[in-house]
């Protein structure tokens, strides 16, 4: 298969990890894989990520060290290529892990505070004492006097293991908590840190996840990050710090070779600012040095991104003196370099400005050890405030889920990426710019969309098709929807540590603003599966900008909107003003089908954790019945709707089955299908059932009950079920899906007639949401009339509630905006998603006469 760069490619050799799908029966687990470039075979590390039901390999993960000199690669079956190089050396001892990449040597502790004890480059210590840091803020107000205490916290390692060991790539996973540096009285704020190493490279990647387990009313986090100590060589004028700004590099030394008498034609000063190491021992520089060495020595520097549109850099001589303002800008690219005569280290943070408030800090630049601090949450900002936005719930007026107050951040998480690059000699500004651009853009090998499509490894979706005027117009509308939300992220500044990656739910054309402050109309939080829409859109186009949107949404919704431990573990929070605010904690928000695309395309281990985390999410319903508003009969362990609850479970079980081949999870799926088969209305039964998580059993309790049939089809259930239908080869299951879709578009009289009056139109609202299921029925039956009904659900604006064409208009309000007054994310997502599915299943029946409607 052909592989190309997603868009950007490395300037020099870089470690790359990616995943690819294989059609069923195309790759046996004992077959080798090799990678070819224009120059021949490339050392490759491969591993299976998922399997087809017949035992053949469905997805493989790969790692290689690649340069940007090649544009096209071939991945083929054949004998495994043997690496002729030294390869990675990985050693696990009782108290530490030792890794030798061939260029760098790392000592990683299994216990204690310092995670990375030491990094050695060519026999010289390049960095040491790498650990995680945080600041807790506690405030007290007494008689109008506010007292604030900041307590520094640091990491405590609980577990460290080698997850993957070479020859090309090594991954180490470290887990632990934070504790007070001085008091050591409490261990909290759990973390997971993964370190990635590649053969003969001079860099390391870190993926950091922190979890909140405090009291939102008391435990305010003032700062969160990591730090390293770097031994530098050279006099203060040969110590250099550089920050990546909006475009280029800003550079300053610890001590300027600039004086009031030496400023015109001062070539040494120009070289100093360019980052060059100077030899000023010649007599011709004696007067310059006599004057310049009287200049102040600047030891501490920091650059803080305090919003999506502003950063500033400050510096000071030492902690007894004030900071002095230096530069200001808009969007820093999130890299700091500190170095001396023997080189140094560059540290970068992915999505630095997008996930403000963030900062990069260097202290003691002229001392024997310079300390670098990477702040994911900058101490120069206000502390994290994870309390609810209101002391009550607003169910009737603001579409919040329950009267119960369940707004808690306990168990949520946030993941960030950090890069370290080591230099034996000072790099040029150009080298640093190239490196930071690599860090801020996904470096990924991808397949052509046609390959993803033909493998059928990620469900049912269509390739772009402009073969007729109407199809071309629909493709234009699909692109317009993506472009609208891409622009909204920027225009509305949907950025920030806790927000980046999410969209808003419903627009308010009167305020020319999204309903950010109105209960369930604010953040989307995976409602009606925007993740799947974005990932289908990427798979069919290969567009990097869509990948970035989908990646950010996956990172955000899988971490921030979900609970990873605590009373709601395995569930997520429905849409709300704050991401964890809604009283509805449900499996539909956390289901694996929202996140597995990113896992399979990138082989990201953190996302793999999340897929494993939800495999038994159905057991959480024993503690929180999702239908508690309507049903609480003690004869049932709990309750579940066929969708979105059981649909989410099947998505989770499918993920676990295909990744691990554990038959237990296949059997859970089959048990539910078998139970539904025996019911008179099959998948149309319910939609609410009694549910027993211990046996994975749906317990029939009548039909046409509370729950809403539109809920069955709006939350990724059809996408999971269609994929399952491709795998299990059960004609009855396919017929049940088709039966559900066909039933949705029957007349009210036909619905009643087929069910003895039990089911009727009043139970089947928002029919556009079912258009994909109707298309499935039409395709299975090859029924043109049914296909026309499916297209009518999408093309008839009165039914779809989708305003076509998708066109923004200018609003001159507090600033000039582009808006679609009637826009809702729910409708847009489902229209796009179902259109993509319908184009695949019933594109041949698309009536050109409807072109005027779009």
Shape: globular
Counting DSSP E segments of at least 2 residues, the number of strands comes to 37
Specify the helix fraction band.
Answer: 25-40%
What would you report as the Rg, rounded to the nearest angstrom? 29 Å
Q: Indicate the low-confidence ranges by residue numbers.
A: none
Q: What's the overall average pLDDT, rounded? A: 96
The percent range for strand residues is 25-35%
The profile of the biggest β sheet is: 20 strands, antiparallel
Essential attributes:
PcRGLX/YetA-like; Tat pathway signal sequence domain protein; alpha+beta; 854 residues; globular; PcRGLX/YetA_2nd; Immunoglobulin-like
What does this entry look like structurally?
A hairpin with a 6-residue loop joins strand 10 and strand 11. The protein is globular, with a radius of gyration of 29 Å. Among the domains are: 76 residues, Immunoglobulin-like; 141 residues, no CATH class. Helix 5 crosses helix 7 and helix 18 packs antiparallel against helix 19. By secondary structure, it is an alpha+beta fold. InterPro entries: PcRGLX/YetA-like (IPR045793), PcRGLX/YetA_2nd (IPR048330), PcRGLX/YetA_3rd (IPR048331), PcRGLX_1st (IPR048329). This is Tat pathway signal sequence domain protein.
Brief characterization of the structure:
With 854 residues, the chain is α+β, with helices and mostly antiparallel strands. Helices cover 26% and strands 29% of the residues. Helix 5 crosses helix 7.
């Amino acid at each position: 298969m052909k592989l190309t760069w997603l868009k950007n490619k490395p300037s020099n050799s870089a470690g790359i990890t990616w995943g690819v799908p294989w059609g069923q029966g195309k790759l046996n687990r004992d077959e080798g894989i090799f990678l070819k470039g224009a120059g021949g075979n490339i050392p490759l590390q491969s591993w299976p990520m998922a399997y087809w039901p017949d035992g053949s390999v469905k997805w493989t993960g790969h790692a290689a060290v690649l340069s940007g000199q090649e544009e096209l690669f071939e991945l083929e079956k054949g004998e495994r290529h043997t690496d002729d190089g030294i390869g990675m050396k990985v050693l696990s001892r009782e108290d530490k892990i030792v890794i030798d990449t061939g260029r760098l040597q790392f000592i990683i502790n299994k216990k204690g505070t310092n995670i990375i004890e030491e990094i050695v480059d060519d026999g010289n210590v390049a960095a040491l004492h790498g650990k995680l840091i945080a600041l807790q803020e506690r405030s007290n107000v007494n008689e109008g006097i506010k007292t604030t205490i900041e307590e520094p916290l640091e990491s405590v390692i609980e577990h460290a293991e080698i997850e993957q060991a070479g020859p090309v790539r090594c991954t180490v996973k470290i887990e632990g908590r934070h504790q007070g540096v001085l008091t050591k009285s409490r261990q909290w704020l759990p973390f997971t840190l993964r370190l990635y190493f590649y053969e003969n490279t001079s860099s390391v990647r870190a993926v950091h996840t922190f979890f909140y387990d405090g009291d939102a009313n008391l435990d305010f986090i003032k700062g969160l990050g990591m730090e390293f100590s770097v031994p530098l060589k050279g006099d203060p004028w040969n110590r250099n710090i550089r920050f990546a700004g909006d475009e280029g590099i800003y550079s300053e030394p610890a001590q300027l070779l600039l004086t009031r008498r030496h400023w015109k034609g001062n070539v040494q000063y120009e070289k100093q600012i360019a980052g060059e190491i100077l030899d000023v021992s010649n007599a011709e520089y004696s007067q310059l040095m006599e004057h310049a060495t009287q200049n102040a020595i600047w030891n501490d520097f920091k650059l803080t991104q305090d919003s999506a549109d502003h950063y500033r850099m400050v510096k000071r001589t030492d902690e007894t003196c004030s900071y002095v303002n230096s530069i200001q800008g808009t969007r820093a690219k999130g890299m700091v370099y500190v170095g001396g005569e023997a080189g140094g280290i560059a540290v970068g943070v992915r999505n630095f400005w997008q996930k403000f408030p963030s900062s990069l800090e260097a202290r003691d630049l002229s001392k024997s050890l310079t300390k670098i601090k990477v702040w994911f949450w900058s101490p120069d900002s206000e502390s994290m405030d994870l309390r609810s936005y209101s002391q009550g719930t607003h169910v009737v007026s603001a579409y919040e889920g329950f009267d119960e107050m369940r707004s808690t951040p306990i168990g949520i998480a946030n993941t960030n990426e950090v890069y370290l690059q080591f230099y034996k000699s000072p790099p040029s500004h150009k080298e640093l710019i190239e490196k930071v651009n690599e860090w801020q853009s996904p470096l990924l090998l991808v397949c052509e969309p046609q390959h993803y499509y033909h493998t059928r490894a990620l469900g049912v979706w269509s390739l772009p098709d402009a073969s007729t005027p109407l199809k071309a117009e629909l493709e234009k509308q699909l692109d317009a929807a993506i472009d609208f939300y891409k622009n909204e992220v920027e225009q509305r500044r949907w950025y920030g540590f806790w927000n980046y990656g999410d969209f808003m739910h419903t627009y308010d054309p009167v305020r020319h603003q999204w309903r950010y402050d109105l209960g369930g109309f604010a953040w989307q939080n995976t409602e009606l599966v925007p993740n799947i829409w974005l990932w289908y859109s990427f798979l069919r186009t290969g567009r990097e900008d869509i990948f970035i949107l989908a990646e950010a949404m996956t990172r955000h919704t899988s971490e921030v909107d979900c609970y990873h431990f605590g009373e709601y573990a395995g569930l997520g929070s429905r849409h709300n003003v704050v991401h964890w605010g809604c009283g509805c904690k449900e499996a539909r928000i956390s289901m694996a089908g929202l996140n597995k695309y990113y896992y399979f395309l990138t082989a990201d281990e953190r996302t793999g954790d999340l897929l494993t985390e939800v495999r038994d999410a159905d057991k959480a319903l024993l503690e929180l019945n999702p239908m508690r508003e309507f049903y609480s009969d003690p004869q049932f362990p709990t309750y579940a709707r066929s969708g979105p609850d059981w649909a989410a479970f099947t998505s989770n079980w499918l993920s676990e089955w295909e990744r691990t081949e554990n038959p237990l999870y296949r059997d859970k799926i089959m048990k539910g299908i078998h139970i539904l088969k025996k019911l008179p209305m099959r998948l149309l039964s319910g939609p609410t059932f009694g549910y027993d998580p211990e046996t994975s059993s749906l317990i029939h309790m009548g039909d046409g009950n509370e729950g809403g049939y539109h809920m069955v089809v709006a939350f990724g259930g059809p996408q999971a079920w269609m994929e399952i239908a491709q795998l299990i080869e059960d004609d009855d299951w396919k017929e049940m899906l088709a039966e559900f879709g066909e039933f949705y578009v029957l007349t009210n009289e036909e619905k009643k007639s087929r069910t003895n009056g039990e089911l009727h139109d009043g139970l089947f609202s928002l029919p556009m949401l079912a258009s994909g299921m109707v298309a499935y029925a039409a395709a299975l039956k090859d029924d043109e009339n049914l296909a026309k009904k499916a297209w009518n659900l999408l093309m008839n604006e009165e039914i779809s509630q989708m305003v076509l064409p998708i066109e923004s208009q200018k609003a001159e309000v507090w600033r000039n905006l582009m808006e679609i007054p009637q826009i809702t994310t729910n409708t847009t997502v489902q229209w796009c998603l179902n259109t993509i599915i319908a184009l695949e299943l019933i594109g041949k029946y698309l009536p050109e006469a409807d072109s005027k409607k779009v």
